[in-house]
Amino acid sequence: MSEFKLSVLDHASVSEGSTPGQALRAVRELAQHAERLGYTRFWLSEHHNMQAIASAATSVALGFVAEGTSTIRVGAGGVMLPNHSPLVIAEQFGTLESLYPGRIDLGLGRAPGTDPRTMAALRRDHNAAASFPRDVQELQAYFEPAQENQAVRAVPGEGLRVPLWILGSSLFGAQLAAHLGLPYSFASHFAPDALYEAVRVYRETFQPSEQLARPYVMLGANAFVADTDEEAQRLFTTMQQAFLGTVRGARGLLQPPVDSMDTAWRPGERERLDHMLRYSFVGSPETVRRKLELFVTDTGADEVMVSSMIYDQEARLRSYELLARAAELPGSTGRG
């Protein structure tokens, strides 16, 4: 298989019949599992006012994950920076880096991660996204060594140079990441439309920085791996149900898989979801290996970050184990 890194993006999904506390403990178990298998990093997403996502207090959840692991990189995928003061984020991630040195990543996005009413509850300015580039640079500056007589300093944070990433699903993020010389993560796992153009623009306009000498692209994908193609397709129906709820404006807890989605669709919904979830690799290890290798070869991705909304924790752990085997990760050798 082509050489690339493989990582995990999780949402601390709360399944029907479970609680946020159980979801967060399951997240840490998954991170420990991913670490043993040889995944490169484990990221959590920031979302608010969503029943099925328990990672709203992202930096707190990341501390819980980092405390339970020892080598895997832990980070945000990402912090929605316009929801926050750059200083507060510098302090939070400076604290994480101080406690878990050399293992913390900070992915930054400009979307709200929620709905308009919740944006108001977050006290987010509707124009905040316009200041995203400036806020990223302010955050960067807080991680640099403090200047003489500097009035505002991030403690902890200053001098720690926590690695920043720009997250995006459009050309805006690609252009900003290239301009600042930062690694770029594209959300192709749910917003595939601009994938190739964004990656092209990022690579062609990249300007080297102290953090990064050459372009580095990480792409999102969904993966559902089981012993057979049929069982993997059944696991995938949990994610299909979740996205169907999003499309209909009726989000809820993560639902158990079903044998078939054929009776669930309204006109046009299946086509819409198939497009949104285009980069979903569903099947046995051999099936997914072929799809993943084609994806990496076609895009030239340096890293693939995988999301898997699987209802049952044991099936989720098994899926990541089979995926690690398919990708020939170092920790997957000899596992049953």
From TrEMBL:
InterPro entries: Bact_Lucif_Oxidored, CmoO-like, Luciferase-like_dom, Luciferase-like_sf. Residues 10-302 form the Luciferase-like domain. GO terms for molecular function: oxidoreductase activity, acting on paired donors, with incorporation or reduction of molecular oxygen. One of its GO terms (cellular component) is cytosol. It holds the Pfam family Bac_luciferase. NCBIfam families: oxido_grp_1. To bacterial alkanal monooxygenase alpha and beta chains. This is Luciferase family oxidoreductase group 1. It comes from Nocardiopsis algeriensis.
